[in-house]
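Technical note accompanying the year-one report. For the benefit of new consortium partners, we illustrate the data format agreed upon in the data management plan: each record pairs a sequence with a structure-token string. No post-processing was applied to the example shown here.
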Amino acid sequence: MFIVISYDITDDKRRNKVAKVLENYGARVQYSVFECILEKEKFFELQEQLKKIIESCQDSIRFYQLCEGCLKKAEIIGTGEITRDLDYYII
């Protein structure tokens, strides 16, 4: 599934930890926005990791799941492109 994740974290240390975790799951497309292509299990794993970092009374992380139809309608003004899942991987 394609997920857009945005966050608003008040503390620099927590914000950096959140960004580091997200870098392991997806692509940073703006300062506090990531695009991820994840299986359901990985998505739940990611959410659990992030819950351990944030202060829920101060911080906010939003997850937007986009269907294929919605993803095709996504538009970008300026630089960048929508994150795509590769058909093959070079290791």
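Partners are asked to follow this layout when depositing records. The first strand starts at residue 2 and ends at 8.
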